[in-house]
Amino acid sequence: MKKLSKTAKSSLITYGIVVVAYLVCEILMKTGHMSSLMKGILVPLCIYAILAVSLNLTVGILGELSLGHAGFMCVGAFAGAVFSKCTAEIITVPGLRFVLALLIGIVCAGICGILIGIPVLRLKGDYLAIVTLAFGEIIKNLVNAIYFGIDKNGMHFSLKDSMSLGMEPDGVIIIKGAQGITGTPTDSNFTIGTILLLITLFIVIHLVHSRTGRAIMAIRDNRIAAESIGINITKYKILAFSVSAALAGAAGVLYAHNLSTLTALPKNFGYNMSIMILVFVVLGGIGSIRGSMIAAVVLTLLPELLRALNEYRMLIYAIVLIVIMIFTWSPGGIALRERYLPAKLFHKREKEVQ
Questions:
Q1: Is the CB of residue 201 less than 8 Å from the CB of residue 297?
Q2: How far is 349 from 354, CA to CA, in rounded Å?
Q3: Can you tell me the distance from the alpha carbon of 134 to that of 296, in angstroms, rounded to the nearest whole number?
Q4: Tell me: the pLDDT tens digits for 71-124?
Q5: Under 8 Å between Cβ of 273 and 66
Q6: Rounded average pLDDT over 211-239
Q7: Is 65 strand, coil or helix?
């Protein structure tokens, strides 16, 4: 019998963690041992895990700092929500409607990733981060200014107000500017979120360990050397960036269909959201797919578990972040964990990407 490779074992462990966590949550819900608060954050846990894993493809595997990940999430969320809202009476099967909305959100976010990636990925370091940050803010503000409606004469757009649409009385306004979209079908659930997380992990892990992934990591480690052996720098950088954007779009569709009202508020798709996703990636380990997923879940759960402490919970949350950062990245923390914890729990990025 052929033994599994080290990469295959690591991948199976990652998938197994997700499956076991899903089964435990389902058992707790069926037996009534899970509070309504915890039930309400199960889908957001999947959303943040998908966002963290997808951003790690850009930050950890490609080695480029992106601060506009929430912008791609916003594109996917509104593209999917508009489709579901427009077809709510035509496509009455929730599963089919959600799958189609998911595909539309992924395609729209992926196209935006390509369009943004072509000029942006020519930049490096801080310049790239600034431009991607600007993209995220532009997308958020543009969505807040759009008015979109449908009547018997077709589709109507405006950047002024709803009266400027010039619609018939029987028309329906889909996007109401800063008020966003109301009445979006809530087709998502924890099971769908878990399936999307597993698909995201499968795509990212297999991409990383493929020939394409090795080329992307070669560009990250030494751009000049990679180009000297014939690797198409632009092609692989845009590929990684667009796949990351498309997966963020999938998370956005899941987010949009978990709420009945979708608005492009700063807390939803702004700068703080992009920074929070980046924090998940950094604390989970840059380049560690499994680590970023676990960090997203733990750091999302922590404020909710500490809610009983009222004003002290965010202080404790900040202290935990600092401790994790020191334990993960400082020389003293690295020496401490190597002394008292099994070496297999931690892998350097250069050796293996989980």
A1: no
A2: 9
A3: 24
A4: 999 999 999 998 988 887 888 888 889 999 999 999 999 999 999 888 888 777
A5: no
A6: 88
A7: coil
